[in-house]
Write a structure and sequence with these properties.
The chain starts with a strand and ends with a helix. It is 44% helix and 17% strand. Strands 4-3-2-1-5-6-9 form a 7-stranded mixed β-sheet, sandwiched between helices. Strands 7-8 form a two-stranded antiparallel sheet. The protein has a single domain, classed as SGNH hydrolase (Rossmann fold). By secondary structure, it is of the alpha/beta class.
Length: 276
């Protein structure tokens, strides 16, 4: 039987939308994979920890491979962990929790949740790669839960809080960091492009919701590029996979946008190595 890369992402919807693009990029270089999501919308570490302790079945479990994407729900974390011999396991924290509390404060608040949960994951899968997913912050103009993203400077400040938290957690728990959020800020800062959340059929002019990674805006593809480089050690630049959105293929990212996102992801991953 052909060996596959078994990847488990535990988190919120921020670890969900770009999976098909990641599978396509891996497949383009001959890497077969089972990419699996264990997620609940907006789920913070506190809930992951509570549901693990109580074995509550609230999660959606998606497996994406050459057969497409299949969902099982509701399930608990224990069931999900039994589905594969996981090569890679990742976890994330809610961006809103970090931004609202501040990185330093939330490091203290969340200490028990992350340390106990990671101790369990590492004991169950001692030979796995253990990753911390550092996601992105909202698009300018986004209003959610009384919070409004007003400027690039505010984006940068929020992204720094998320980055500082991720760096501290990775050093404390000896985890690798998946810095998708830094790639987003590089695109915004260096290329002046803040449409990464744009999605087919979402809002006026396909604007998206301002915080989920978009398909036609390139956020999903950018995230896939970062994950691809970290998982494989290969450059994403020149990867032949291209997302094609069947609802309207004309809205698929242009070659110009693809190249820009590849370069940004490659640069962000290179900078990650300097700061880890």
């Amino acid at each position: 039987m052909e060996k596959k890369l078994n990847l488990l992402m535990i988190g919120s919807s921020f670890c969900y939308y770009y999976v098909e693009e990641l599978f396509g990029m891996l497949d383009a270089v001959g890497i077969k994979a089972n990419i699996c999501n264990v997620y609940y919308n907006g789920c913070p570490l506190e809930k992951h920890w509570n549901w693990w302790k109580t074995e509550e079945a609230h999660y959606h479990y998606f497996i994406t491979n050459e057969n497409g994407r299949v969902k099982t729900a509701p399930v608990n974390l224990q069931w999900c962990l039994q589905q594969q011999d996981w090569d890679v396991i990742s976890l994330q924290e809610s961006t809103g929790r970090i931004i609202n509390a501040g990185a330093d404060t939330h490091l203290e608040v969340s200490k028990v949740w992350r340390t106990e949960l990671w101790a369990y994951l590492k004991e169950r899968f001692p030979n796995s790669r253990h990753l911390w997913h550092q996601p992105w912050t909202y698009q300018i103009g986004t209003a959610t839960n009384g919070y409004v993203m007003e400027s690039l400077q505010q984006q940068e400040a929020n992204a720094k809080q998320i980055r500082d938290y991720a760096l501290a957690v990775c050093r404390e728990l000896n985890l690798e960091r998946v810095n998708t959020g830094e790639a987003w800020q590089l695109v915004r800062r260096e290329y002046g492009y803040d449409k990464l959340c744009a999605r087919i059929g979402k809002g006026e002019n396909n604007a998206g919701d301002g915080y989920h990674d978009g398909d036609i805006g390139g956020g999903q593809y950018l995230n896939a590029c970062v994950w691809f480089e970290i998982l494989t050690g290969q450059s994403c630049i020149g990867n032949t996979y291209r997302p094609l959105y069947m609802d309207d293929p004309a809205l698929s990212p242009s070659e110009e946008l693809i190249l820009m996102l590849q370069k940004a992801a490659h640069e962000a991953v290179a900078k990650r190595k300097e700061s880890n």
